[in-house]
Amino acid sequence: LKEVGIIEKAVAAQMDEAKITANGYSVYMCLRVSSRLLYEMDVKTFHKILEYRIKMERPK
User: Which of 14, 26, 40, 55 could form an SS bridge with 35, CB 3.0 to 4.6 Å?
Assistant: First the structure.
């Protein structure tokens, strides 16, 4: 469980570095090798964070 937290934090930090657009909303995601490695290691966590970021970026 500790490792999942580390991966989650690392993915969230990487996402803040590069910007892409998904569904017309601004989303931060890093596409570098390190982030891809995390993506392959824990796809579910990666997608959970991405979904959360998209929701947070949407205008209320």
Answer: 14
**Half-sphere CA count of 52, side-chain side, radius 13 A:** 10
pTM to 2 decimal places: 0.33
What total number of domains does the chain contain? 1
Give exposure, 11-25, as e/b (b: 16+ Cβ within 10 Å): bbebbeeeeeeeeee
Helices (H) and strands (E) in the chain, counts: 3, 2
Q: What is the pLDDT of residues 2-34, one digit of tens each?
A: 555 666 777 666 665 545 444 444 444 444 445
> Which residue range forms the structural domain that includes residue 52?
2-57
Give the integer Cα–Cα distance in Å for 13 and 44: 17
Please give the single-letter amino acid code of residue 39: Y
